[in-house]
Amino acid sequence: MTTTIPQQPGPAAAQPPQALLEASGVIMRFGGLTAVRDVSLTVNSGEIVGLIGPNGAGKTTFFNCLTGLYVPTEGTVRYRGAVLPPKPHLVTQAGIARTFQNIRLFANMTVLENVLVGRHTRTKEGLFSAIIRGPGFHKAERASRERAMELLEFTGLAEKAEHLARNLPYGEQRKLEIARALASEPGLLLLDEPTAGMNPQETRATEELVFAIRDQGIAVLVIEHDMRFIFNLCDRVAVLVQGEMLVEGTSEVVQSDERVIAAYLGEPFEGATQAEHEQENDA
Amino acid sequence: MTDLPIAAAEEAATRTDTGRRTAPFVPMPPAAARAATLAGAVITVASTFMSWTYTTDFPGDLTVSGYPGGLQVLTLISALLTGVIALGAFQVRGLSWLNPSRSNNSVLLLALATLGTTWYTVIDITAKLGGLANLDPGAFVAFVGALVLFTGALALPIDRHPEEAPDAEHYELGWAERFPVAVRSYVWLREARLHHSELRVSDARKLNPWLQRLAIVVVYALGLKILTYGLATDYSDIFIGYLIVVAVGFWGLGAGGLLQQFQQLTRRNKRFSATVGVIAAVAYPFAQNNEHWANLGVSVLIVGTVALGLNIVVGLTGLLDLGYVAFLGVGAYTAALISGSQFSIWSGVQFPFWAAALTGMAAACVFGVLIGAPTLRLRGDYLAIVTLGFGEIFRIVVRNLDGVSGPKITNGPNGIAQIPDLSVFGYNLGANHSVGSFTLGRFANYYLLMLVITVIVVLVFTRASDSRIGRSWIAIREDETAATAMGINGFRVKLVAFALGASLAGLAGTVFAHVTNSVVPDPYVFSGPVPPNSAFLLAAVVLGGMGTVSGPILGAALLYVIPEKLDFLSKYELFAFGIALILIMRFRPEGIIPNRRRQLEFHEDEAQAPGNRPMGDDTVPAATAGA
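Predict the joint structure of the above. Result:
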């Protein structure tokens, strides 16, 4: 498990790429609705992978399958070679952290406390140690606070450590979600629309932040609608349309793919694939 | 610090540089208003030295000239306090620290307390004795004095809600719109809303540390005095006057910032003020020689401790548990069974107290896990319903384990009687003990034992809540999905909270069994007129303040003592209880002692300019007034 601290750029980027996350043949059905059909995606270490697609394409559902919030109807998700357990907290324990599309901070806790909650899986102190308050407890608590403050420095929120999370402006709430996710010392970070509702400057800052996270050896899988953001950022981009993987490849490949343009702009496309016809028939 | 959005100033209302919107309720020249306030206070104070009635039929002797008696004492104290706080608001040198925010709201509310208790007394005399003829001139002087005082206070510039009330057309009042008077009063009430959330409190750091400690000691001593005074009132008339003065008076002191100033002091001297608090609590049985009071004290400590345990489950973790009293019952029954009582099936077995306490805790903990494991998979309302059911199951099972409907364990409805008194390290809690010139009776002994347990529970609560596990409880309460995504095993963490809450209730239950001498199934219901029931405990938590330490204890004390003192309420107790809860939910949903977080949550509209006020439980909001 990577336990790199922000100040030390991890060596992961220099290593030959190895598959960190392998989702193969993931299918998610809700009753008669198939939200994700047979999606396979690999994220290598030290990579930033983008996941795009029109609204309702199943991106967030796929994310939830990766993080144990949903158990895929079929298919497997492996992290570092091991099949992921079907419980969100065990997935986080294994080393995958996430943010949410609609911000889900602990609104009535302070900024620092939010990050400390993120440290949960990397600390051990239970109830009895909290009540007895031995030297071990104080040491662990101090270490947690130091680490949390480091992360707040890293995301630029250190000044607001004692503010209530609900009182932060929108952009900073997004940053705090990332800091909280990083606190669990993940090997892979899943970002669900990290720049939604941001202005260009904030988007640019988020871009820098994601690069900085990658430089620490943490792989990133990001859902986003902002094309410029995605194509600036990502080493590889996967396109999901109506629950199905349309194309996967480098920015250039994806940008020039006519099916992607069709999916986004809705233009009639003569050479529509078999798959699209099938979807229309299904609907 | 205070930059409220400044809207266009109304003619009548003026805004100060800090953005407050102030306006008097009664038009009067400012100097006249101040003079009226002070004159009213002086007249009211003077009246308490006169005779108010000429017969001694009215409870408390109000016939004596020369010194105040009975209800007159309350009038005297509140009028004096109003006068002094008013001088503080008028920035008289040396007194302004009494009213750190210089707010006239404080004066107005204290004047209201004076008016309330004085008029209540005068009207009560008239009603009880039959007619105005029973009033002596002193009563008329008091009546007029309080009125002058209150009118003067109404004419002072009062801090209003920063938003002006819109015109009548703005409101959609439905059928009430047919009555112009109703609409106008509604608009007037909206406009009349007081506002005192932006308190200026001077920085306690400027004060000499020894003076800080002295202040804490003095306030705690005063608190103990106020408490024992209230308990010593021997008829409901005085107690009602006392309630008016204390409730409205504390509200007024809070409006002036004096309470916040004291809070800041205690926060800076946490350890010291906790010690003084414990000493004051230990001093309580020595402050009187009345077994009834000590009994009251034990009962309050028991329900307060159990409410604090419930606070872990409800306040911190956000799990609505409606069957919590069952765990108190488990502790009490366990203690009764191993107490050596001849009605216990193991009548020969008598555990020493420490072993009995641990057994009671362990038994309650096991029950907590057994009940929690299946139910905690549910969320919200479903959990509440299921816990309600399990609470009732406990009581019914205990009723049926009588040898007829089931195995003979608990003696069914007859319960286990003749539980012997405890003996801790050779100290028999059932006997009287002399300490110096004081005699500690049976209940006083139990009070001191229960105090030790309360201190332990408070320690457990504070330490657990400020730790990894406590943070995960709060995280679960805030957003369970996000909490699990952060690696928190929701089920396990909730089960720990449930089991800890149950154990603490079980611990209190072991003492409860010995204090009451017997255990029967009936008190362990969801709701009933006798205190230890689930609804009572939950009400104590909600009334006092969820997620705080002192809140549930204060809530339990109020809910226990007030019905005890107001004997005429006995028939309507549950009704009054319901009214009180509705009022609290409407006007102060965060409870009497608010957790800062929850206060912000419920009064979001009043929290100005998000982001510019640092809010930790340890940070001091404003520290700018200075002399």
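Strands of chain A lie at 19-30, 33-44, 48-52, 74-79, 82-83, 96-98, 188-192, 219-223, 236-241, 244-249.
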